[in-house]
Amino acid sequence: MTPRARRAAVTSAVAAALLAAAGAGAGLHWAAGQDSKQLTPDPALAAAAAPAPDAPTPEPAGLTEAESARIALAAAQAQTIALSEEVARLRWLALAERRTCVTPPPPPPPEPPAVVEAEPPVEPEPPVEPEPVVVAEAAPPPPPPPGTPALMPARERAPDPPPPPPPPPQVAAVTVPQPPVQVAPPPPPPPSDPEFDNRIRREGGQQAQQLVTLIWNNTNDLDLHVVCPSGERVYFANIAACGSRLDIDMNASTNQLSTAPVENIVWPSGLPRGRYQVYVDHYANHGSRDPTPFRVRVRVAGEERVFNGSIHYGEPPRFITDFTIN
Question: For the segment 296-308, what is each residue's pLDDT rounded down to a tens digit?
Answer without folding.
Answer: 999 998 899 999 9
